[in-house]
Amino acid sequence: MPSASDVYDTLQRMLGSELERLQMRRVATIGYPAWVSEVNASGERLFVSVQVDGKATDPYSGGGFRVEIEKSKDAKPASGLNGRALFFQLLTSAEAARLLARQNAVIESLVRPPVAQVEAYPAGSVRDQYLAYFEPQVEFDAVRCWLRFRTRADVTGWADALSPLLADLVDRGDKVLREDKRVLGKGPLL
């Protein structure tokens, strides 16, 4: 399974060229890939960032990353007063369905863990949560917003799927988000 560093390198390389074409530049002073637009007439910037889930990974269920779009007057993402949204909140239903199909294809490709791995988790909700990682996902929400991967090919496939959506995500984020209103994970905004 690729490390967080490998995932970041792949996403930075593959998504970065499209974001740069959209007049966004890389934010260099944070620990995950993020891009920022120029300041608009209201003094706001738009950020696009990708973050790997550093806690929920194992060789069977894989790992995940998510994409956030943010509007802020601050110079760095996730600081100060900001309006943040997860990628799925700015997708049309057709776009979300395509990404959900990819998500379920990745989930379907996962190797089921051996009994000893499952039994390593305490019986009850923790074990149930772990086993849920192997079940098809019916929607993206605030909890299940991580784009799953187990291989480098999964990460590359996600970058290929996300790249054509970036211009719309940036445009919609600019139109819909307000730097003084948090909507992170609350449901679709379109």
Q: Structural class of the secondary elements? A: alpha+beta
Number of helical regions: 6
Q: What is the beta-strand fraction?
A: 15-25%
> Assembly type of the shown chains?
single chain
Helix and strand run: HEEEEEHHHEHH
Distance between the termini: 35 Å
Helix percent reads: 25-40%
Total domains: 1
Mean pLDDT value: 92
Sketch the major β-sheet: 6 strands, antiparallel
Radius of gyration: 17 Å
Count of individual beta strands:
6
Large-scale geometry: globular
Low-confidence stretches: none
Mind explaining what this structure looks like?
This protein is α+β, with helices and mostly antiparallel strands and 190 residues long. Helix content is 37%, strand content 16%. The chain has six helices and six strands, in the order H-E-E-E-E-E-H-H-H-E-H-H. Strands 1, 2, 3, 4, 5 and 6 form a six-stranded antiparallel β-sheet that branches. The mean pLDDT is 92.
What brief labels describe this structure?
single chain, alpha+beta, 37% helix, 6-stranded antiparallel beta sheet, 190 residues
Short structural summary:
This protein is an alpha+beta fold.
Task: Please write out the topology.
Layout: H1 4-21, E1 25-26, E2 34-36, E3 45-52, E4 63-72, E5 82-86, H2 93-109, H3 115-119, H4 125-132, E6 147-149, H5 152-162, H6 166-176
Antiparallel strand pairs: 1-2, 2-3, 3-4, 4-5, 4-6
Helix pairs in contact: 1-5
